[in-house]
Amino acid sequence: MDTSERLVESLERLGVERVFGYPGGRVIELFDELPESNIELVRPRDEREASVMAEMHGRLTGTPGVLAGQGPWIGSLGLIGQMEARLASSPMVAITDASERGNYSTIAPYQQSRGDYGGLELPKILDAVTKEHWFPRTPTETIRSLQLAFKHAVAGRPGPTAVILDGDAITEEYPDDVIPPVWDEETQTRTWKAAPSPRDVASAVEALEGANRPVIISGNGVHAAGAYDELQDAAEAYDAAVVTSYLGKSTFPETHRLAGGVIGSFGHEGANQLVSEADVLLVVGCRMNPMDTNWQAPEFIRPDEQTIIHADIDPRNAGWVYPADVGLIGDAAESLRELVASGSADNDWAEDRAKAARESFTAPECESDATPILPQRAVKEIERVVDEDTIVTADSGNNRFWLLNYLQVPAVQTYYGSGGVGGMGWATPAAVSAALATDKHVIGVAGDGGFAMTMTSVETAVEHGVAPTFVVLNDTSLGMVRQMQHGPDDISGVEFHDTDFTRVAEAFGAVGVRAETPDELADALSDAKGRDLPTVIDVRIDREQDMAETLQSSFYASVGGLHE
């Protein structure tokens, strides 16, 4: 058995259903074996899109998404998805190569990535992004490295790992007997969940039971742990209002009686006020980055006045930004389960206060019939077709913040956004990946700038027989940056040529629809949901609706506004 054949056999044993990638270099050895396996190859138009698809697969399923491709391109184009995976805690494994050329390696053939004089050093590039990477030099090291890559992708805080194939390590025959032995995949990749100590749980329970105004801040760690039921149980056990971070949106149904919305610089004013009024804060799986904390506006979170319980898988994160009174170190589901089993409380504050906070999900503009379509109204039309069997993927830029504020999701796992590293162009390939991984209807939302970056993913959807709806909120500009201008033409590079995305869609074999009125958008969304082909809806929105001015929180304004 060749090592490449054994590598694919390992992938099958690890339960991999599809690989996202682009053939090239030594990875061709892997691609050569895939047709004889049960693994589906998803080959988009470049490694950037493949990397986002792999990242979204990991984020959505909790099992590593597999990215495969030649070293120089996995270390450049393919870094987009890996960066998002690192900061958004998505399990992912990249299988790549050093593109080495044997005896020629020391005299610098092109694309050489082994690190020799005159070439690139792929291990150093990936070291800056991945949790761990391996550079096996023998067949047995290759298989063992792959197993460890899958183990470390999900162990502790999930993230991306990589295996860099090199010459003989992928082309030689795989030996029958090896020392040290290579164990079977199930044994080698087994992991265990960490749980908080009983003493810390008892301290947290005491604080929550004594609270008059308890609030839970739910972050992306709840997604990563799949701790949705545990979060709802904890909220109901302690009668606590629940708000989420940007990446934590859809960890809790936003229609629930205790839901308060999304916090942050461009989050809900009601949710931010809830956090400010709390006497006890339970932070679950949230790093509390500057956007989450309104850039640490002094009146937002006040450790000297509020009791802070911080639950996180990584002990470095608990109390990283704000001093924590109690740290619950472990898997989010385990921590929440322990809290529910150990105590309960009620109050007269949380339900009524959360109900008032949810008023931030609406605004008069959401019902406007104006043309061009107001982005607030566009989001409400999207909301009307979102149910518990729908997934919305959101890009970076203005579109993400309109969605965060006005899309009130009815269930968990219905919204995912580009908010780890926050790269544009994420939503479209992410939507394709979500459609491949589930039977749900998927809506990818992007601005015209972000959509154009990765619109060839529409062709991938057509090729693989999935039918996401792609909504392009089109203001023919780089809207968020354009609105940062202090005067006309103050910032160069913000205007785009008016591309006809309906014709682009048709060229890829999809359906293209242009929507210029709210009714046209409503009809287009409804029709797309029942269609067997992908649909691109080119939505002409009012470019004068200023996102930052409209959505900036009062707390964020108090520290001076934009810190981008």
Number of domains as seen in the coordinates: 3
Q: Quickly give the CATH architecture of the largest domain.
A: 3-Layer(aba) Sandwich
Shape: globular
Poorly predicted parts: none
Q: Would you identify the CATH H-level superfamily of the largest domain?
A: Thiamin diphosphate (ThDP)-binding fold, Pyr/PP domains
> Widest sheet: strand order?
2-1-3-4-6-5
Number of helices: 25
Q: Average pLDDT across residues?
A: 96
Give the helix/strand class: alpha/beta
**Rg computed from alpha carbons, rounded to a whole number of angstroms:** 24 Å
Main sheet, how many strands, which sense, barrel?
6 strands, parallel
Number of strands: 18
CATH structural class of the largest domain: Alpha Beta
The CATH topology annotation of the largest domain reads as Rossmann fold
Beta-strand residue fraction: 15-25%
Measured as a percent range, the helix fraction is 25-40%
Distance between the termini: 53 Å
Note down, in words, how this protein is organized:
This protein has 564 residues and is α/β, with parallel strands linked by helices. The chain has three domains: 1-187, Thiamin diphosphate (ThDP)-binding fold, Pyr/PP domains (Rossmann fold, 3-Layer(aba) Sandwich), CATH 3.40.50; 196-357, TPP-binding domain (Rossmann fold, 3-Layer(aba) Sandwich); 362-549, Thiamin diphosphate (ThDP)-binding fold, Pyr/PP domains (Rossmann fold). Helix content is 37%, strand content 15%. It is built from 25 helices and 18 strands. The strands form three sheets. A six-stranded parallel β-sheet has the order 2-1-3-4-6-5, with helices on both faces. The chain has a six-stranded parallel β-sheet with strand order 9-8-7-10-11-12. A six-stranded parallel β-sheet has the order 14-13-15-16-18-17, sandwiched between helices. Helix 17 (398-406) links the parallel strand 13 and strand 14 (415-417). Helix 1 packs parallel to helix 7 (139-154) and helix 18 runs parallel beside helix 20. The N and C termini lie far apart (53 Å). The mean pLDDT is 96.
